[in-house]
Amino acid sequence: MTPARFGAYSGDPLLAELALGQAVAELGPARRVVLFGDEPCLARLLGELVASDLFGEARAIVVRRADTLVGEKRLAAALARGLPPDLALYFLGETLKGPVATMAEEAQHFPTPTGRALRTLATRLLAEADLPQPPFVVDLLVEAAGGDTLRLAQEVRKLTLWKGARLTRDQLVELLFFFQSAPYAYLDAVGTGELSSALAELRALLNSGWNPAALFFTLVGHVRALLLAISASQEGRTAPGPAWLVRRRLAQARVWGEKRLIGLLVSLQELDLRIKTGLLSPEAALHLFTLRLASA
Questions:
Q1: Domain 6-110 carries which CATH code?
Q2: Which of 187, 218, 202, 159 lies closest to 291 in space, CA to CA?
Q3: Spatial distance between the Cα atoms of 28 and 9, rounded to a whole number of angstroms
């Protein structure tokens, strides 16, 4: 199939960039020229349309923020005469409408993905980066991105720095939500069964902007760590981790006992299922779990 030499891509910025990247890659070697449509560039662009490269090199002109420019009648008239054989032209913007956009060989508008489509995109980005795609990693990425696909791509790039390393679930949460302070006070209050302190710390974390989904993942990891600590102790083993942290976890685990910790983990798994099926928000799940500590 002949590569499109005249494209217009709008809507979601990441999906538009991916479409542009594919189009330029299909062209083969070409010198990329980047212009910005919201700056004075019409004269330069019109000149490129009638000129040939001095050394006969193929050119790919990319015009970003081109929403206003694609309505220019002078540009439409110049494009109606056709592109030079050594030139490809691509426009990007939020919404590309007008005579120029309608003339494009390939014109695509990409709505910002949500729900299942966003998870599919996260899985695709992980696969293209040659990274594993387990569901819990996809969930973390989607929550960390907050619906921003460019942030999603940034988080995947961050994970590529750790390619080949064995990261725990807790480490992944910390890596993807690094900008938020660790919720140690809340986790300690849960571990020691102090309901009033746990509720107060939870409110403080959420009021400070902590992502509820990330906090829920962290909470699940903490309860699992307590269960691992007490199980290892009963078997005469030492749970992994620094000695001070193992001692701290074991002390908290003994407050609950193995049977009650299993009950807490089952409660979290039930809440996690309700979150994933849309019956409960992560914030509501955190409050519900914390309140349940009184009767656990």
A1: 3.40.50.300
A2: 202
A3: 19
CATH topology of domain 180-296: Zinc Finger, Delta Prime; domain 3 (1.20.272)
| Overall pTM > 0.85 | no
Two tokens at 149? 């696909």
Spans of all domains in the chain: 6-110, 114-177, 180-296
Amino acid (1-letter code) at residue 47: G
Query: Residue 111: its pLDDT value, please?
Result: 94
Angle at 191 between CA 210 and CA 272, to 5 degrees: 55
Question: What are the tens digits of pLDDT across the range 95-120?
Answer: 998 889 999 999 999 999 988 899 99
Segment 44-67 shows an average pLDDT of: 85
Please name every residue paired with 11 in a beta bridge, in sequence order, or none if there are none.
110
